[in-house]
């Protein structure tokens, strides 16, 4: 892919030359056209530069919205930077990891989204920010054979929004880095899926059991445990005699350090979810603090050992390590950027941070897609006036609309802010599971518009007739 940066720079230089030329013309009432033209060109040449770092739930939604309002009318140059080339709805990563959703059709390509929505896309990882020069530095982009495709580059900004998300937090537990997998992004979910498929085949061939241990009883770990069982149920009826005996037994152990799983939900949901998981064969161990991980499994603080062929760390939340190189911005203990309620860094009024990588000092919010989306919407509404007229961005008020957890096809619950819980029951939480799926569809409509969003939903449905319902290769 070729980035036409030099062409853009020449264009800007030509614009400036024309302005300078027109400025030499005496500004009398007899030449209003010249003055008007000069003003127009001047505005074009000094278009504010808005950088959005991270095209996740918050960043891509913000870039798309600002593209429609500012980019489309030439009011600003909006650039999205991401270290990957496509976006996925992160709350679906456990489905990609278990293979129950094929991710080919659920990716949004940044280049095509940018060209259709009046913003630019630059691939690369932002490794540092020079706040004096108002410049970010992107690491070189490498091909899979290690060769350099794009050299390290820097981009200037007037306003920057950091939306680089989060990753699981191993709290420095020995052995986790070397012996555990995580599913914080698509690459990791695919790596897990590859290992899961291979171990499953091995278990088929050896007529043995497959042990998987997941650390973290929050939404990620709980949903992954259920989805893995769903994957095995789908695989069961396939003709796999060539690989060996009957479908192997899957032994999933969910380890939660706290007293109950899904601590962000009411106790009734935690209890019902634990029962549901146990009914499908998942071993749930609460108050189980992990002391260390090794190639055979996890050692708990009480000295016991949980054997596992595949080990997943899905506990805790921290910002990516790279925030420590972002120009000395004040961070909290987990590396999240400290912001005022209006999402502006507490130390720099040109830097905003949204979603999982940010932390509002006065009023911390959970790291959820709901928070990320509302914050992106808030900035999309208020950044134009801030950039063009210097109007301060008001505080972002979070409207808690509740939370939904879906245990594969088995059950689901929604907890509303007033304490109402719905789901479970004889319908196996169908309404809650549909609600969970609707959140994704809503996100697609936000990115593509209603028409294309519905087509995408329809094409996903058509796919269920022509593709296997599990990833097999
Ligand atoms: C398995 C799983 C299930 C979940 N389920 C739910 C759920 O049911 N409900 C819910 O509300 N939340 C859920 N979450 C949490 C939710 O996904 C996150 O809160 C949400 O995605 C945060 O959005 P974000 O925009 O802050 O970051 P992300 O969506 O994570 O996006 C971050 C983006 O930044 C890019 N990036 C990272 N570092 C750099 C860098 N240095 N330079 C350039 N680009 C960079 C990444 O490539 C990525 O595109 C779940 C999370 C997981 C992992």
From TrEMBL:
Q: Which residues form the FAD/NAD(P)-binding domain?
A: 49-376
Q: Does the keyword Cell inner membrane apply?
A: no
The record's section on SUPFAM superfamilies has: FAD/NAD(P)-binding domain (SSF51905)
Q: Which UniProt keywords apply?
A: FAD, Flavoprotein, Oxidoreductase
* InterPro entries given in the database record: FAD/NAD-bd_sf (IPR036188), FAD/NAD-binding_dom (IPR023753), NADH-Q_oxidoreductase (IPR051169)
> Transmembrane stretches, by residue range?
none
- Report the cofactors: FAD
In terms of Pfam families, this protein maps to:
Pyr_redox_2
Which family does the entry's similarity section mention?
Belongs to the NADH dehydrogenase family.
Q: What is this protein called?
A: NADH dehydrogenase
Taxonomy, top ranks, is: Bacteria, Pseudomonadati, Pseudomonadota, Alphaproteobacteria, Acetobacterales
